[in-house]
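Thread title: Can someone regenerate the structure for this chain?

I was given the following input by a collaborator and told the matching structure tokens would be attached. They weren't. Posting the sequence so someone can regenerate them.
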Amino acid sequence: MQHALVQALEAWEQYWRQTQAAAVTALKAAFPCLGDRPRYVGCDDIRLEYEETGRGGGRVCLDDEGRASVEFEQVPNDVIAGAVDEIRFPYLDYAEGPLREAPPGRYVYECEGSGGQFEFVLGSGGRGQVVISFAAVPDVVAVLDALERAFTGHAAAVTQR
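Best answer:
Regenerated them for you:
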């Protein structure tokens, strides 16, 4: 391989590692309770996880193509609804208004521009799921930030009761 080509590839790899590190920093800034987890054998995805009483638990993965996926479970429905309503997705399947007013169920947004899928499940027991698949990092950061703010509002409301 030509020396100039080897140098160009090394520069690209260094830039890519810096880009991934910046993505992880942004994800953690948006949702501070995320912590690093080891990668699976044979899997290059970067994994971040959390588990907290009252907030549920789950993971965020950053794949080797720069897409992020989220799987959160046992998240209070009002937190999910508050975050989703704040973001104002342009079209959320099966929702006929604000998610705060929606019954338990599965609500989905598919972004035609990025190919990301955003699924929000309001559970019948008051806790649901947030599942985001192969979305652009800025979009996932926006959802995580909205969730973090909704958790703060939820905690304040619980404290006042």
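Residues 79 and 150 are 5 Å apart (CA to CA).
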